[in-house]
Design brief:
Layout lengths: L1 H28 L3 E7 L17 H8 L2 E3 L2 E2 L4 H10 L28 H7 L3 E7 L18 E5 L10 E6 L4 E6 L2 E2 L2 E2 L8 H15 L6 E6 L23 H26 L6 E7 L23 H4 L3 E4 L8 E3 L3 E2 L3 H8 L16 H6 L7 E7 L12 H18 L6 E6 L2 E5 L29 E5 L15 H16 L26
Parallel strand pairs: 1-10, 1-11, 2-13, 3-14, 4-5, 4-10
Antiparallel strand pairs: 2-12, 5-8, 6-7, 8-9, 11-12, 15-16, 16-17, 17-18
Helix pairs in contact: 5-6
Bound molecules: 2-acetamido-2-deoxy-beta-D-glucopyranose (6 copies).
């Protein structure tokens, strides 16, 4: 009896062991589908769940059932955010720390960088991209289809008309403004979509990728929407709910956000209808803060797109899907756009062995289970060539003053504090040089005391904020915490030592597609 009892126990023990090995195998062969939706220029105050006047029922619902990332950072402008998403590495490590890739600049994300879709493809994924690339296209090897995506439908430059899909650009060495089509299906020019509003066009394409996908293979779908970048264009029907918004630009912008929200709704519905949703991780993120010049808003945060203030880098983002272990929560852990590569490749059961040293962390346990973030520090950027691209209300004199003062203090700190840079460490954020437009833009529809030019004195070359207590960056505390300042300046200097020289070539006149051509590889 005893022996029987023992062998029975041994049998069940073995069976349980086998079962767990088996379920382990099953889950190992069923990596999740990954759908990454990137919005363009969507500001902190431009989603319903941040109490905006703009309505985003789909984003609100998906994020309420998922995990909202409220201490989540991106880069202040387009190419850099996309670059870090695709490489898991800081801009200083790809030589792309300055600005964006303009249509005629002959460079792209270095070809020896291994990108996220390549890693996922190696892990057995079908990889598809829809929308904006903006990571360089001067030669064919730079195109998404040569960098890990099985299929691609979208545009290669940074912005264009939502209906004609034309991009106009001043080709300086030719003294010529060229307007030409920028839309491709794979590597071929896609000329048949004139008049189709891109938010609808791209979400339709995303839905068709989902419908065609054989669910026995894991899917990676990267949807980089044009919305809600300028120009302000939207079909009339999306404006109907916004007659109460007096500012015409903000009204158009609100309509564009609504169209984008509908696109996200359509994509998540397709995932459900096709039976993929139960094994899907959906990430939604903006690429940078809102551009106030084109009616975006980051209220109550300071600054905007292109600046290192919170309004430029603190991002709207969330993760949705039934695989989250603590759905319906808000994460206040520090997470950065460079973290997606190790996180998603980890979920895919893939390997990051083929990449260069990563700056990102695998934050899945932080997102899914609420663990503390492995990320203690975040280098926002170091860009010695920085200048703002859009007019900032009041004023350039501040910039000059900051530089003048800074020169004296450079030697003392070992880091040239005239350089535009920012670094975050736990609750602290240090900024040096001119961080970009420093204004607290008013809440849309209000022009009360929150508005306008700060009443504080001129900017200082070194500024310290406790962004956990003071996310609006109103209370500059470098004088009270000199040790924190010294430590963070040392960290900046250490990072700067690892930086590649900036690659930012002059326009190549050979980029000109001519009067009937399309933007695309020329070299
Ligand atoms: C550029 O073109 C404009 C208009 O055709 C002309 O006035 C100007 O002189 C040109 N500049 C140069 C540098 O060629
Ligand atoms: C979402 O789907 C509906 C129904 O098919 C369609 O009418 C609408 O245009 C779609 N919206 C977008 C933004 O693609
Ligand atoms: C999906 O792929 C599996 C495995 O390759 C195959 O057996 C199945 O027939 C495919 N299904 C469809 C609908 O193509
Ligand atoms: C310090 O940085 C500023 C801004 O990038 C630059 O203009 C200046 O030349 C630098 N100073 C020195 C001594 O390198
Ligand atoms: C910017 O500064 C200049 C020179 O100090 C001044 O004339 C101008 O009014 C200022 N502009 C704003 C918007 O404050
Ligand atoms: C903003 O202030 C102006 C001038 O005081 C006033 O006429 C206007 O109605 C205000 N607008 C809003 C939206 O409060």
């Amino acid at each position: 009896m005893t022996r029987d009892g023992k062998s029975q126990a041994a049998f069940w023990f073995l069976a349980a062991g086998l079962l767990s090995v088996f379920t382990g195998l099953v889950s190992a062969v069923r990596p999740p589908h990954i759908v990454f939706i990137l919005a363009d220029d969507l500001g902190w105050y431009d989603v319903g769940y941040h109490s905006s006047e703009i309505r985003t029922p789909n984003l609100d619902k998906l994020s309420a059932q998922g995990v909202r990332l409220e201490n989540y950072y991106v880069q202040p402008v387009c190419t850099p955010s996309r670059n870090q998403l695709m490489t898991g590495r800081y801009q200083i490590h790809t030589g792309m720390q300055h600005q964006i890739i303009w249509p005629c600049q002959p460079y792209c994300v270095p070809l020896d960088e291994k990108l996220l879709p390549q890693l996922l493809k190696e892990a057995g994924y079908g990889t598809h991209m829809v929308g904006k690339w903006h990571l360089g296209m001067y030669k064919k090897d730079c195109l998404p289809t040569r960098r890990g995506f099985d299929t691609y439908f979208g545009y290669l430059t940074g912005s264009e008309d939502y209906f004609t899909h034309e991009r106009c650009y001043d080709i300086a060495p030719l003294n010529l403004t060229r307007c030409a089509l920028d839309l491709r299906d794979g590597e071929e020019v896609a000329a048949a979509y004139k008049g189709d509003y891109s938010t609808e066009l791209f979400s339709q394409r995303a839905v068709s990728v989902i419908k065609k996908h054989n669910s026995s293979k894991p899917l990676f779908l990267y949807v980089a929407l044009q919305a809600v970048h300028s120009p302000l264009q939207v079909p009339e029907r999306y404006l109907a709910p916004y007659s109460f918004i007096e500012d015409r630009h903000r009204r158009l912008y609100a309509g564009m956000v609504s169209a984008m929200d509908e696109a996200v709704g359509n994509i998540s519905l397709a995932l459900q209808q096709e039976g993929l949703w139960d094994n899907t991780i959906l990430v939604f993120s903006t690429d940078n803060g809102g551009q106030t010049v084109y009616a975006g808003s980051n209220w109550p945060l300071r600054g905007r797109k292109l600046s290192l203030w919170e309004g430029g880098v603190r991002a709207v983002g969330f993760v949705a899907g039934p695989l989250l272990e603590k759905p319906g929560t808000v994460s206040r852990e520090l997470i950065h756009i460079s973290d997606w590569l190790p996180t998603l490749v980890g979920l895919a059961g893939g390997s990051t062995g083929g990449t260069k040293p990563l700056d990102g962390f695998n934050v899945w346990k932080t997102i899914s289970k609420g663990f503390a973030s492995p990320r203690q520090e975040l280098l926002h950027n170091i860009d010695p060539l920085y200048s703002d691209l859009a007019p900032c209300p009041g004023n350039q004199s501040r910039l000059t003053l900051a530089r003048g003062v800074a020169e004296d203090r450079w030697a003392k700190f070992g880091f040239n504090v005239s350089i535009h840079a920012a670094i975050r460490s736990s609750n602290w954020k240090l900024l040096t040089g001119y961080p970009g437009c420093e204004v607290w833009f008013p809440r849309p529809g209000y022009n009360g005391s929150d508005s306008g030019v700060p009443k504080l004195g001129p900017l200082k070359p070194i500024m310290l904020f406790d962004v956990e207590k003071d996310p609006e960056e109103r209370n500059e505390v470098s004088a009270q915490f000199p040790d924190v300042v010294d430590y963070l300046l040392t960290r900046l200097q250490e990072h700067q030592k690892t930086a590649l020289p900036i690659n930012y070539p002059d326009d190549d006149p050979q980029c000109d597609p001519g009067p009937t051509g399309a933007w695309g590889p020329w070299a």
